[in-house]
Amino acid sequence: MQRLKNGSRYMALAGGIIVQIFVGIIYIWSIFQEPVIEYFNWTHSGAALTFSVMLPMNVLGVTAGGILNDRKGARFVLHTGGILMTAGLLLSSLIPKGQPWLLYIFYAGMGGFGGGLAYNATVSCAQKWWLDRKGLAGGIIVCAYGMSTVVFTPVVNMLLGENGVGVKNTFRILAAVFAVIVLTVGWFVVNPDEEYMDNCVKDSKEWIGKKQYKPGDVLRSGKYYMVLICLLCLTPAYLMLNPMIKSLGELRGLSEEIAVISVMITGLASALGRLTAAWLSDKIGCKRVLLMLYTITFVSILLLWNIHGNMFIVLIALITYAYGGCAGVTPVLATDFFGTKYMSSNFGLVMISVMISGIAYPTLGTAVSPAGIPAAQVFLIPAVLCVAGFVTLHFLYGKD
């Protein structure tokens, strides 16, 4: 019986990895944007709004997925998300040329929400099976999500290229592949039973006697809002600079080719941060990991203010590593502070920080960067918020 349980947890982890690589497709809108503008004869601002709609819908999907996961199970949530995302991609391929705004509903709305459901299902399921190594398991899953950009960018670029199949057929191909993968691999993503969870809790001193917060309890807890603040204070450095990394690199003395490579390096740095920060949380605890990420971000963003040449790439990679690390420890924080019983719902609530930061910081970065050239505030605001994060972290963990 125990052998069967162990086999199931490896299958759930492997299934989650595969699903996450495909779910991350929704985040490569930047590759779609120019071909979509050309095909629909659309404006840049109209096309760019697609991603702005998709992000909050994705986080709403993560939050709703948590509630459904605790009630219906990971497989149900994953398949529901898979159907929504497949339908969103397929319907996007059927949009008439005169109505590109329908992408807000199909690609951003249905695709984003469905992707959020699938994200929660796989992350929460992995953590439930691997309570003894919850950081590592969650880190592997979110790392796979981050690697989706690296895996699918060249594929989608080829499909949309001069000798490719075009926008509509690319949507159809992705819909078909996604449906097959999620609806088959998704059968292995199933939550452990209560007996397994209870035995894991009994076997670990970490969970004995620990309060199990219901979602309502979380929202009434001061710790929840401190967790949000800690996460919100860690992400502005990357999110404010992200739209300008290539252009800023060129301003700092990099060639166009090297500046493009620096953008690609950020994808790998983010994936590495997601994996290693989560793994380290199992070894040294979330508090020390967050202190490390704050320190990396604080030092790097201040040095980046006036750095030139190849050191620019190193500092951007470090900032992106810390941003990825934040994503890696987010599910661990939710479990550490609010328990295991309702971890799916509570993880969804903590993910609200992603929606707030993803909307607020890029907008703020653009507002203080005339003509795309970052002003001093782009470096000072993240540094100040790092200090605020340090202070909040102290109160969150008290005297521990």
TrEMBL record:
TM segment ranges: 12-32, 44-64, 76-95, 101-123, 135-159, 171-190, 224-245, 257-277, 289-307, 313-334, 346-364, 376-397
Domain Major facilitator superfamily (MFS) profile span(s) in chain numbering: 8-400
InterPro entries: MFS (IPR011701), MFS_dom (IPR020846), MFS_trans_sf (IPR036259), Proton-linked_MCT (IPR050327)
One annotated Gene Ontology cellular component of this protein: plasma membrane
Bilayer topology: Multi-pass membrane protein
Subcellular location: Cell membrane
Alphabetized UniProt keyword annotations: Membrane, Transmembrane, Transmembrane helix, Transport
PROSITE patterns tied to this protein: MFS
Main location: membrane
Signal peptide: none
A matching Pfam family: MFS_1
SUPFAM superfamilies named in the record: MFS general substrate transporter
Source organism, top-level taxon: Bacteria
One GO molecular-function entry: transmembrane transporter activity
Entry protein name: Transporter, major facilitator family protein
